[in-house]
Design a protein that fits this description.
Length: 365
């Protein structure tokens, strides 16, 4: 039975309940294994995780160096198709057996399939998931998913900014800035005042109830906001980083935006919204990383933008930036959008809860 990484790390005192909860939320949003999310959030070290699994399972673990310069004949013992699907990399072989690096050495169905397909004995060793992903790309030319490109490209994204760390910390100007807090909305207002022509709020809420993954939520956001704005960008917050989720009307292609990332603390705008959990509305005076982000996306700020925090699990999990208003006054739109973002937060919470309910890893018959 697959090992429950979260429980194992908790019992060994390597993480706390809050960190586990945040990692589970990140896993729901970004995918991947729980251990990889904990590593990327900075709560555990890759090798600490690998060594813990090694001790728990009494099998060897490997480091990044062990995946350098693998023999081509060894790689050929497992086909690209099988290695990609099962997420394994052969690192050594003899006449009878193959030593295989895998993130979950308790995945016995995968081991059985490898044994059947190769006709060889399979000796699993522990390897952090991200190392397996990089090795698959290196030896099998398996293109990394956006999520892993994002993880490895964070430093490069930051280095592409034309600012120093000091410049990134300059204060935002307050030109025409208005910050509006949430207001309570009665049922009559929801039905009569908050309808958006073509995609009313009750339709958006109905779709959020049906959402089974983050992609569905992002689709609802695009559908709802496109009625009022010509530009939108959704940033997903993971630990101390903001990463591209989805957008429309921006310069970057969608796949490029999903590889886009920057540290939250380097952005005066995003860090302020995260800390206050209050929306921003107005025409900001931008500098540093904020200027770079909006320039890269081609977001037009002359007529004002709105930045909306989506709070789930008690923290800001994403931020929606909208620009180029098609109709109405920005201030008049805040009630409906505050209401919408509250519903989005509940939708994110609901998906995390569903995933935990459906988690059968600890079920014993």
């Amino acid at each position: 039975m697959p090992i429950r990484i979260g429980d194992l790390l908790l019992s060994n005192g390597l993480i706390n309940e809050h960190q586990l909860k945040e990692a589970l939320h990140a896993q729901t949003v970004f995918g991947g294994r729980l251990g990889t999310n904990l590593v990327e959030l900075g709560y555990i070290n890759e090798m600490d995780l690998a060594l813990l699994l090694s001790r728990q399972l009494n099998i060897p673990c490997i480091t990044a160096g062990d995946l350098d310069g693998l023999d081509a004949d060894v790689i050929k013992t497992i086909s690209k198709k099988l290695a990609e699907r099962l997420r394994v990399v052969p690192i050594d072989a003899d006449e009878r057996s193959i030593k295989v690096a895998m993130a979950d050495p308790t995945n016995f169905p995968a081991i059985d399939e490898l044994r059947f397909s190769t006709g060889m004995l399979i000796e699993p060793v522990v390897a952090p998931e991200i190392l397996v992903v990089f090795a698959l790309e290196k030896y099998y030319e398996v293109r990394r998913s956006v999520r892993y490109i994002r993880a490895s490209g964070m430093a490069q994204n930051l280095s592409n900014t034309s600012t120093t760390a000091a410049a990134a910390k300059q204060k935002l100007g307050a030109v025409d800035e208005v910050v509006v807090g949430e207001k309570s909305i009665g049922q009559k207002q929801q039905n009569e005042e908050m309808a958006v022509e073509g995609y009313p709020i009750h339709m958006a809420v109905t779709e959020l109830i049906k959402a089974i993954n983050v992609g569905h939520i992002l689709d609802v956001i695009k559908e709802f906001i496109s009625e009022d704005f010509s530009q939108m960008a959704v940033f997903l917050l993971k630990g101390e980083n903001a990463v591209g989720g989805t957008h429309f009307g921006c310069k970057l292609a969608l796949d490029e935006f999903q590889e886009f990332s920057f540290p939250i603390e380097s952005s005066e705008l995003v860090s302020k919204i995260r800390d206050t959990k209050e929306p921003f509305m107005g025409v900001p005076t931008l500098s540093g990383v904020d200027a770079w982000v909006l320039s890269e996306l081609g977001i037009e700020t002359e007529k004002g933008i709105i930045c909306l925090p989506v709070v789930s699990g008690g923290v800001m999990s994403s931020m929606i930036m909208v620009a180029k208003n098609k109709k109405g006054d920005l201030l008049d739109m805040m009630e409906s959008y505050n209401f919408f973002t509250r519903k989005l937060g509940l939708a994110f919470d609901m998906i995390v809860t569903k995933d935990r309910i459906l988690d059968l890893a600890g079920f014993e018959q």
